[in-house]
Design brief:
Strand order of the largest sheet of chain A: 6-7-8-3-9-10
Strand content of chain A: 15-25%
Strand order of the largest sheet of chain B: 7-8-9-3-10-11-13-12
Number of strands of chain B: 15
CATH architecture of the largest domain in chain B: Orthogonal Bundle
Number of domains of chain A: 2
Distance between the termini of chain B: 55 Å
CATH superfamily of the largest domain in chain A: P-loop containing nucleotide triphosphate hydrolases
Order of helices and strands of chain A: EEEHEEEHHHEHEHEEHHH
Helix content of chain B: 40-55%
CATH class of the largest domain in chain B: Mainly Alpha
Radius of gyration of chain A: 19 Å
CATH architecture of the largest domain in chain A: 3-Layer(aba) Sandwich
CATH topology of the largest domain in chain B: MetI-like fold
Number of helices of chain A: 9
Shape of chain B: elongated
Distance between the termini of chain A: 28 Å
Number of strands of chain A: 10
Helix content of chain A: 25-40%
Radius of gyration of chain B: 34 Å
Strand content of chain B: 5-15%
Oligomer: heterodimer
Largest interface: A-B, 70 and 57 residues
Largest sheet of chain A: 6 strands, mixed
Largest sheet of chain B: 8 strands, mixed
CATH topology of the largest domain in chain A: Rossmann fold
Structural class of chain A: alpha/beta
Chain lengths: ~270, ~650
């Protein structure tokens, strides 16, 4: 286990003549064994940052280092794994969930070892090991998201990136997945970058929080500080927007109403 | 999968074409074995004979039987057509999948090449290749195969690009799976169906093209013969013996038709989901009179409609025909909304909350059926059908949907779409209507409304579009706004602004609001009263301020405890509702929630609890309402707390 470091990372899309900067000089550290929550509205660049880390988006400048070394882009060893937002598109509908998980396992295992490992991972995410033979179409959204977590863990990652993993789920299921994330993090000592637009969710799972706005990180620090005593106007606005927060927090009165459109929404984007 | 193919074959057209294709293929296999001798025997006594009992289609210039020659020719014709198809499909697959394997730059080059090739007419390519490869069967096979490759490559490319954008492909790449394996394991299996269908259709096309080339003398050369060659020979004596040309012509027609139709039928069959299929919408079985009466009585004990009700719904049922009898996603929902009241409806997906709203707005289409013992909107009986109250619904009831992108016509300006409401329902001129639209956009706090009115929906952000949608709703003077998950697709900050907007419209104009959401906290913040739905029924009806701590139904209590807020105890797990939501096609007897409920006992599994008043204005449907529940500290499952 080791630190994941984003150092002045910039991600650009579009042509050289009309570039669109989705992530603009972001520096962020995910310390070993800690959960860092990344919050911001859609189009703020938080998903793009995650996709850049796992090699799904091109890094224009800056570096992403794990343990001081650049992340491998080829070969089987992938110390960084990602869980995606939509559990209905993140599992191949033609593969049993056992096959999906096996695919992410290290290659050097024997057939028996693989089967045992799949059963262990399924048990870890509280699914019946017999479920390995079923197709994802027969699982609910929450169960699929558990499978996606198991697949991410199969690669024996040092860091897991969770990209809005509960926002496509019903509220009643969201709780179960959040419980699981906390439990796995504690038991395995995982480092995590937990992306969400919901501050209450981030507060529940993360130790640190970073707030992203228009491609930049505008505030970061321990959850207990940022969420109790926010420094940036946008953080205050986010806090005020948490459903049910108005009765408990009085910050909204002082928060400015940011009018108009987040930067990225006026331009079409290919990601997220 | 296999079942879907079987369903295709079960349709009358599917069966016919399936049999036809099988017959043609069978003929191709057996004909040369059985009739080769009779087709090739030269009989100089019978040269150019007319059709007779012995030679059904006459004979050719060497006295050979044309009918049998047409039968035997089926093998070569089909073989060549299939080989050409295989070549076309293989080349198309390679070219179409190349961009995925080669990466961005080289991929673009391949795609550009394919796009240019697609622009050439197929027959021209075929003739070009026929010249390159020389006249003869081999040349023709390569020509027709390669001529079909570009369009197939284009199809493959589009399909591959669609699948490659999905998260499971990203996930595989993140897991370190190579590009080639991604293609083999994830992409190809998921695009196989349309490819197989298209290959079948193009096999029919290749058959025709081959007949064409042979007919032109560019294909099969004597002494070998296929249908095209026979046609070529027969056409010369068409005035002497029309059957000589008609026999092979008919064979080409039948075989081509068989392949093409089969492909079409399969495409249609697989594109459609299994719900419905060939079954006609099953009529809902009439309920017995006694049952009806008891339901009516149930409705009566609620107070008679006071005049301040905007919406009064009693015993609303929605059903759809399913493969095993009607599916009932909404099973007897009774509620009313007063003037200016905000009513929240919460529940999991599949609980019937959205369908309830759609039924009220008369937006459920055939084959769905809506029944109710009473459904009144401002005194008008909505059961008469949407057309009877088009004007009333158009001006007095507003609907806001979850996805504002799909609720607007993308090709028309926002202002014009808003103005339409006033133009059609309020008798304004176009100019007045447009002015009203701008004014309403201003009212829903769209900045610079005059300019925004001239813009298209894609120029609006999600939040702005949702505002415009609400603006459309308040073009008239609505007395009820139904908002179905209006903020689920929006960011939290934008969500707050949209909720504020709904709230202020309600305050200003005394408009009633029905807010449907899966998020208890959102509903609790905006609404006066909350209906909790589970498996198509209302299980609890309570004032919103009692949600936190005052709810009696175990489901409501679990929902509330499942959502973290800014004060959630970080040392405790969030509440979990174990098990899965009820499938509307298979609702258990007794209380639908019993299987997931910590308080359930034998009575719950046998008897469905009615929704009964529980004091302080709330109603609950539970045999164990309000019994103490505890939270299992390790799993988050709610458990019964036994009092000694």
């Amino acid at each position: 286990m080791s630190d994941l470091v984003f150092d002045d990372v910039t991600v650009r899309y579009g042509t050289a003549r009309r570039p669109f900067t989705a992530v603009d000089g972001v520096s962020l550290v995910v310390p070993e064994g800690q959960v860092v929550g990344l919050v911001g509205e859609s189009g703020s660049g938080k998903s793009t940052l995650a996709r850049a880390a796992v090699g799904l988006a091109p890094v224009h400048s800056g570096s992403i280092l794990l343990d001081g070394r650049p992340l491998p882009r080829r070969g089987r060893e992938r110390p960084l794994q990602m869980v995606f937002q939509d559990p209905f598109s993140s599992l191949d509908p033609r593969m049993t969930i056992g096959e999906s998980i096996t695919e992410a396992l290290p290659r050097d295992l024997s057939r028996g070892e693989r089967r045992a490992e799949v059963a262990r991972l399924l048990a870890l995410v509280h699914l019946d090991p017999d479920a390995a033979r079923t197709l994802p179409g027969r699982l609910s959204g929450g169960q699929r998201q558990r499978v996606a977590l198991a697949r991410a863990l199969a690669g024996r990652p040092q860091v897991v990136i969770a990209d809005e993993i509960t926002s496509a789920l019903d509220v009643s299921i969201q709780g179960a997945v959040l419980n699981l994330v906390r439990e796995l993090q504690r038991e395995l000592g995982l480092s995590m970058l937990f992306i969400s637009h919901n501050l209450a969710v981030v507060r529940y799972v993360a130790n640190h929080v970073a707030v992203m706005y228009q491609g930049r990180i505008v505030e970061q620090g321990p959850v207990s500080e940022v969420l109790v005593d926010p420094r940036h106007d946008y953080t205050r606005e986010l806090l005020a927007a948490v459903p049910g927060a108005r009765t408990t927090t009085a910050v909204r009165a002082g928060a400015p109403d940011t009018p108009g459109t987040p930067a990225a929404l006026v331009k079409p984007r290919s990601t997220s | 999968m296999a079942r879907r193919w079987l369903a295709v074959v079960r349709t009358p057209l599917g069966l016919t074409t399936g049999l036809l294709v099988t017959a043609v293929l069978l003929l191709a296999v057996v004909a040369p074995i059985l009739w080769s001798d009779r087709a090739e025997v030269v009989d100089t006594d019978q040269i150019l004979a007319a059709p007779s009992g012995e030679h059904w289609a006459g004979t050719d210039s060497l006295g050979r039987d044309i009918f049998f020659r047409a039968l035997v020719a089926s093998r070569l014709s089909l073989e060549l057509a299939l080989v050409a198809t295989v070549i076309g499909v293989a080349a198309g697959l390679l070219l179409g999948a190349a961009p995925l394997l080669l990466g961005r730059r080289l991929g673009r080059l391949v795609t550009a090449g394919v796009n240019i090739a697609v622009a050439f007419p197929g027959l021209l390519l075929a003739l070009f290749f026929a010249v390159v490869f020389g006249v003869g069967a081999t040349g023709a096979v390569l020509a027709i195969g390669l001529a079909g490759a570009p369009s197939f490559a284009r199809l493959v490319h589009t399909l591959v690009a669609g699948v490659a954008a999905l998260d499971y492909v990203s996930a595989a790449r993140v897991a370190g799976v190579g590009r080639f394996r991604v293609l083999l394991r994830h992409v190809l299996p998921n695009i196989a169906e349309p490819l197989v269908v298209n290959a079948t259709i193009s096999a029919g096309g290749a058959l025709l093209a081959f007949a064409g080339l042979s007919f032109l003398g560019l294909g099969v050369q004597a002494p070998a013969y296929d249908w095209g060659r026979l046609l070529f020979e027969g056409v010369g004596m068409i005035y002497v013996n029309p059957a000589a040309a008609l026999a092979p012509g008919l064979a080409v027609l039948l075989a081509g038709l068989a392949f093409n139709l089969f492909g079409e039928v399969v495409a249609k069959g697989l594109g459609v989901t299994t719900v419905g299929g060939i079954r006609l919408p099953a009529a809902t079985p009439a309920r017995s009179g006694a049952e009806r009466r008891s339901e009516a009585a149930k409705g009566e004990h609620l107070a008679m409609a006071p005049s301040d009700l905007v919406l009064d719904v009693r015993d609303l049922r929605v059903s759809f025909p399913g493969p095993a009898g009607p599916i009932r996603p909404v099973r007897g929902v009774t509620f009313s909304v007063r003037h200016g009241e905000a009513l929240g409806v919460v529940g999991e997906s599949g609980s019937g909350k959205s369908l309830t709203a759609l039924a009220v707005a008369r937006l459920i289409e055939e084959p769905g059926r809506v029944e109710a013992s009473r459904m009144e909107f401002r005194g008008a009986d909505l059961r008469d059908g949407a057309s009877a109250h088009r004007h009333l619904l158009g001006t007095s009831m507003a609907m806001v949907f979850q996805d504002p992108m799909t609720s607007f016509n993308p090709t028309r300006r926002i202002g014009g779409q808003l103005a339409e409401v006033a133009f059609h329902h309020q008798g304004m001129t176009r100019k007045q209507a447009l002015a009203r639209a701008v004014e309403r956009l201003d009212a829903v706090r769209v900045p610079d409304p005059a300019k925004r009115a001239t813009q298209y929906p894609h120029e609006f952000s999600g939040g702005m579009r949702q505002r415009a949608m609400i603006g459309m709703g308040v073009m008239g003077t609505p007395s009820l706004i139904i908002a179905d998950e209006p903020t689920t697709a929006l960011d939290v900050t934008v969500q707050q602004q949209v909720l504020d907007l709904l709230q202020s419209i309600r305050d200003e104009d005394d408009v009633a609001l029905v807010l449907i959401s899966h998020d208890v906290t959102v509903v609790g913040e905006v609404c006066d009263r909350v209906l909790v739905m589970y498996a198509g029924r209302i299980v609890e009806d309570l004032p919103a301020d009692r949600l936190d701590g005052g709810a009696r139904h175990p489901y409501t209590r679990a929902l509330v405890a499942a959502v973290p807020d800014m004060d959630t105890d970080l040392d405790q797990p969030l509440a979990v509702v174990p098990g899965r939501p009820v499938d509307p096609a298979d609702v258990p007897s007794g209380c639908a929630f019993a299987a997931r409920c910590p308080l359930a006992d034998a009575r719950c599994r046998a008897e469905d609890p009615p929704l009964e008043p529980a004091g302080d204005g709330s109603q609950v449907a539970c045999w164990h309402a309000g019994e103490p529940l505890g939270l299992d500290g390790s799993t988050g499952v709610l458990v019964e707390v036994r009092t000694p």
